[in-house]
């Protein structure tokens, strides 16, 4: 991987967020509100775009989509801070700060620490056309330290859970989290990387699925022979085999049913990232 790719920039995951009390909201898009509830807030905000929320003498931003997936939160909600990055709709890949290369979170934080709130800096970022360009942005004041410059971006802890997740993390450990890599050889590097990664994932997935104790896989045969050896009864072994097969199929069905719920939880989690800069 290091032969074909080189670190080129930093990728941030989200704009900075905060958790606020719904009852503390005083206005939405400069329209004063009182005795705010979740239902009242939901009916007030616009369908599209960001809505400006005022709470506890501070400004925040939220979209209706993000508010809707927090329906279970009747007292507090997660919102975006009204920070320089989100107000400027800053791109998620940053290559340079004032001409200085930044390859990881530490380098990004170190460079930003050289500036003060109110300073205008030039960032080299990755545009929608996949080409880099320069743009100016005025740094804000950090909410926890008024003397510290603040861009208003956040990074999510990407450690996976579960056996498969840990295996994938181990395999991809050669790549640093939140680092943008640029191919040294245009076209060829990317093709070879995706081809090898696809082969690895397919091989692991096939091996794991094939060991499931379900009738159509080798794992089902292994389970049946193991049950037969332990019970010494073909009838009991077949019952155990039938039960475990149906149980696995039920788990697959249940996981598909809960997919939408899991996606909603993932969005909420992404709003609660650790904010470093």
From TrEMBL:
Its Gene Ontology cellular component terms are:
membrane
User: Does Electron transport appear among the keywords?
Assistant: no
Q: Which InterPro entries match?
A: PDZ_sf (IPR036034), Peptidase_M50 (IPR008915)
Q: Which GO terms describe its biological process?
A: proteolysis
Transmembrane portions of the chain: 195-219
- Annotated Peptidase M50 domain ranges read 192-251
Keyword Transmembrane helix belongs to the record? yes
Q: Pfam families this protein is in?
A: Peptidase_M50
Compartment(s) of residence? Membrane
Gene3D superfamilies the record matches = 2.30.42.10
How does this chain sit within the bilayer? Multi-pass membrane protein
Keywords in UniProt for this one? Membrane, Transmembrane, Transmembrane helix
The name this protein goes by in its record: Peptidase M50 domain-containing protein
What lineage is on file? unclassified sequences, metagenomes, ecological metagenomes
């Amino acid at each position: 991987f290091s032969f074909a790719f080189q670190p080129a920039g930093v990728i941030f995951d989200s704009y900075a967020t905060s958790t606020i009390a719904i009852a503390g909201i005083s206005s939405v898009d400069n329209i004063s509100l009182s005795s705010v509830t979740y239902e009242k807030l939901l009916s007030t905000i616009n369908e599209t775009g960001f809505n400006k929320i005022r709470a506890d003498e501070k400004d925040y931003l939220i979209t209706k989509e993000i508010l809707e997936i927090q329906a279970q939160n009747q007292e507090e909600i997660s919102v975006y801070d009204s920070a320089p990055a989100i107000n400027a709709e800053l791109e998620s890949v940053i290559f340079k700060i004032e001409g200085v290369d930044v390859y990881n979170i530490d380098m990004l934080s170190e460079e930003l620490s050289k500036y003060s709130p109110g300073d205008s800096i030039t960032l080299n970022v990755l545009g929608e056309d996949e080409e880099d360009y320069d743009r100016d942005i005025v740094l804000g004041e950090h909410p926890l330290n008024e003397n510290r410059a603040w861009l208003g971006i956040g990074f999510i802890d990407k450690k996976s859970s579960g056996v498969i997740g840990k295996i994938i993390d181990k395999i991809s450990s050669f790549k640093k989290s939140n680092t943008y890599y640029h191919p040294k050889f245009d076209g060829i590097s990317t093709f070879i990387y995706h081809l090898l990664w696809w082969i690895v994932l397919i091989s692991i997935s096939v091996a794991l699925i094939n060991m499931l104790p379900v009738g159509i896989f080798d794992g089902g045969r292994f389970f049946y022979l193991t049950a037969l050896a332990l019970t010494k009864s073909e009838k009991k072994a077949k019952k155990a085999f039938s039960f475990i097969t149906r149980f696995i199929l039920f788990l697959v069905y249940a996981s598909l049913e809960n997919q939408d719920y899991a996606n909603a939880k993932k969005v909420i989690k992404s709003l609660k990232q650790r904010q470093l800069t």
